[in-house]
Design brief:
Blueprint (H helix, E strand, L loop, with lengths): L1 E2 L8 E4 L2 E11 L7 E8 L5 E7 L3 E4 L2 E12 L2 E5 L6 E5 L14 E7 L4 E6 L3 E9 L12 E6 L4 E5 L7 E5 L4 E5 L3
Antiparallel strand pairs: 1-6, 2-3, 2-6, 3-4, 4-5, 7-8, 7-10, 8-9, 10-11, 12-13, 12-15, 13-14, 15-16
Length: 188
Amino acid sequence: MATTADIKNGLCIKHNDKLCQIIEFQHVKPGKGPAFVRTKMRQIESGKILDYTFSAGHKIEPVRIENREYQYLYEEADAFVFMNNETFEQVHIPRNMIEKPLFLQEGLVCNILFHAEEEMPLVVELPIYIISEITYTEPGVKGDTATNSMKPATIATGAEVRVPLFIDNGEVVKIDTRTGTYVERVKG
C-alpha cells in the first residue's frame, strides 16, 4: 500500500472502486492545519476529470497499467479487432471503449492501456493525426484560398470533417483525431 507521498503524474490508482490516472497534483502545507495533496485525476473508464483532495499520509492503492501498441484489423459486430504486432495475439475491443471509432482505418497502429494484473484492456488511444483520402465533398473553386471558410467532407473511414473550400474529392488530408479537424493537405 502506498501513501500520498508516492503520488506522481501518470500514476494510476484505484479510487472509489474506479481506476483513475493522476493528471496533476500539488502538495500543500498551509501555515495552519494539516498538510494535504490536491489532485486532478482522469477516470479511465469514463474519461471524466475529477478534482480530489487527499489528507497527507492517506493510503492509496496504486494499479499497474501497461501501454501497448496494437494494429487495428477490422470491425466485427459491435467490437473492433486489434492485433499485437509482436505476438500476433488478437483482442476484441467494444465500441464504447474507443472515443472516436469513425477515425479507425485498417492498419492504424493505436495504443491500448491494459490493466497489467488482470490483462484487461481499458482504453484505446488513437494516434493524434491520421492521413486519409477525401471520398466526397462539394467541388472546390479555383482561387478559394483567401478566406477561412470550411465545407463538409467525408473521408475514407466514413467520418465527416470540415475542410477548406479548395479541397476536392480524391485529395489526401491530415486530420487531428482529438478534435476531428482538418490540419493540412498531404502532397505526394
